[in-house]
Amino acid sequence: MSARRPESFESRGRRAPESSGKASAGSESPAGSRIHNSGLMRRPSLMQDPVLVLNATYEPINVTAVRRAMVLLLKGVAQAEEMHNSEVHSAAHAHRVPSVIRLLAYRHIPQQSRALSRKNILLRDRNTCQFCGAIFPSSELTLDHVVPRSRGGRSSWENLVACCYRCNNSKGDRTPEEAGLKLARRPRPFTLHTSRQLMRLIGHRDERWRKYLFY
Ligand SMILES: [Zn+2]
């Protein structure tokens, strides 16, 4: 039998440092999430589908990816409240794909805006390149400094946007105006309000989310 490399669900893609305000239980040891993923890797799009995360009190607090949600379920940190009809298959098992999960322990969510991280910027911009408007998987997006760092642009919610590699290359070390590019919308901090709006927006696609979001 060929050697399979055990790999964490989360080990793909770069992870920006996150500090506070996240609801997706990111502090567990990575050793707990090792899963043989040969089969799970075949449908990356499904594994990146959004899953609604509820607090222990059923309050919607976050949106995460199927991949991450399944790690939380396997670790016993969360339980599934609603399931998709689809399944993912690992070497030995079929796993039903969650649509809504609920954390088993109550998590205090600070009211301040979320941590500035790659993950949260892609979430805010809904994986949409802010210059060409196309939607990409996270791995095909980078962060663009609207005002380049070389020109004094800072790493802030207002100056960082999701950007595809093509637009990023063509923009280079220039401002959008200089490069003849136009921002889809003005980048703003990701507040709890943004988060709720986003959850509702995504929720329109999934009937199973409705009772948790539209009350
Ligand atoms: Zn683009």
Question: Can you give me a brief rundown of this structure?
Answer:
The protein has helices at residues 44-47, 66-74, 118-124, 165-171, 176-179, 192-203, 210-213, and strands at 7-8, 34-35, 50-54, 60-65, 78-89, 94-103, 141-145, 160-164. With 215 residues, it is of the alpha+beta class. The chain has a four-stranded mixed sheet with strand order 4-3-6-5, sandwiched between helices.
Strand content: 15-25%
Radius of gyration equals 18 Å
Category by helix and strand content: alpha+beta
Helix content: 10-25%
> Ranges with pLDDT <50 over ≥5 residues?
1-42
**Structure ligands:** zinc ion
Structural features, described:
The relative contact order is 0.15. This protein has seven helices and eight strands; from the N terminus they run E-E-H-E-E-H-E-E-H-E-E-H-H-H-H. The protein has 215 residues and is α+β, with helices and mostly antiparallel strands. Helices cover 22% and strands 22% of the residues. The chain folds into two domains: 33-111 and 193-213, no CATH class; 118-179, DNA Binding (I), subunit A, CATH 1.10.30. The chain binds zinc ion.
What topology does this entry show?
Elements: E1 7-8, E2 34-35, H1 44-47, E3 50-54, E4 60-65, H2 66-74, E5 78-89, E6 94-103, H3 118-124, E7 141-145, E8 160-164, H4 165-171, H5 176-179, H6 192-203, H7 210-213
Parallel strand pairs: 3-6
Antiparallel strand pairs: 1-2, 3-4, 5-6, 7-8
Zinc ion binds at residues 129, 131-132, 134, 164, 166-167.
